[in-house]
Amino acid sequence: MKLVLSVFKWLLVAIIALFILLFAYANYTVYSFDTETLPEKYGEVEVKLFLSEGSNQPLVVGLGGADGGNGWAGPHGEKQRKLLQSNGYAFLSIAYFGAENIPKSLDRIAIEGVHKAVIEAAQNPRINQNCISVMGVSRGGELALLLGSYYQEYKSVIGIVPGSSVFAAVNDAMTTPGFSHNRKSLPFVPVPWSVTPDLLTGNLRGAFEKMMQNTEAMEASAIKVENISGPVLLISGAEDEQWPSMEMSEIIINRLKANDFPFQSQHIALVGGHNEHHDNFDKVITFLNTQVLSQHGCGL
């Protein structure tokens, strides 16, 4: 019995010591992180352009989420790319972090750098420069909405399981925003210490729900979607396990209504999780064909 008690005591001491070490490491990571110096390769992106047949092609820009890299250009995006091309659209896939020669992590990504790459690609003589749509998934949906709110060149915005505000960087510290503009950090929703258990157990939705309880920060960092220069389509997952995309899509729609948004806006809440949209890409095609091609000289 004494041996059991002794083992239990030392095990408890070891657990407490480990907890103290983890807490100390977390504090060091957070408070030692350089929030002033911009990330290496700031403003650089990786692009790949897919053209369809003919001329005067409307351009759709694809932005991935927090996984990074150029997912839209790979095998996972092939079905959607080919569907867009078969409908006459050119497709520009952009990696804005997590690939060679671009920023390592989703930390203060330069939206002006992404926009510059889009405008350069649109110079292709087979592309209709007056018909550019931007589409993003998850954190890429956040970026797509930001691009549309800052630049009038985007004639429609598609946010797939998007965020309604700017959220924190995806790195160990999470003390900076995911996005910046002209070398200045955008206001963002901070990550409170109370989300630590959720992050450690992989409960990402629970973590974001706690962040969103900071209504003042949510409002201060809200994306000004009312400045978008064309129709908006939002596709969310009613059982999204990554973050409350359905709830945030409703926040976006309500903001558009409150500001008398002059263009069409639509929110489609799919029954399913964060990746339910993969089997519902026809809704994107329908939106583009009915809401975009009829305006801005976008007809094929």
Written account of the structure:
The structure is a single chain. This protein has helices spanning 2-32, 78-86, 111-121, 139-150, 196-201, 204-212, 215-220, 245-258, 282-292; strands at 46-50, 57-63, 90-95, 109-110, 127-137, 154-160, 179-181, 184-185, 232-237, 265-270. The chain is of the alpha/beta class. The chain is globular and about 55 Å long. Mean pLDDT is 90; it is low at 21-26.
Keyword list:
three-stranded mixed sheet; 36% helix; alpha/beta; 18% strand; globular; seven-stranded mixed sheet
Present the secondary structure layout:
Elements: H1 2-32, E1 46-50, E2 57-63, H2 78-86, E3 90-95, E4 109-110, H3 111-121, E5 127-137, H4 139-150, E6 154-160, E7 179-181, E8 184-185, H5 196-201, H6 204-212, H7 215-220, E9 232-237, H8 245-258, E10 265-270, H9 282-292
Give a short summary of the structure:
With 300 residues, this protein is an alpha/beta fold. It has nine helices and ten strands.
**Spatial ordering of strands, largest sheet:** 1-3-2-5-6-9-10
Major β-sheet annotation: 7 strands, mixed
How far apart are the termini?
A: 83 Å
Order of helices and strands: HEEHEEHEHEEEHHHEHEH
Question: What is the quaternary state of this protein?
Answer: single chain
Mean pLDDT: 90
Please report the total strand number as a whole number: 10
Radius of gyration: 21 Å
Strand content: 15-25%
Query: Treating each run of at least 4 consecutive H or I residues as one helix, how many helices?
Result: 9
Q: Determine the fraction of residues in helical runs and give it as a percent range.
A: 25-40%
Structural class by helix and strand composition:
alpha/beta
Weakly predicted, low-confidence segments: 21-26
Approximate shape:
globular
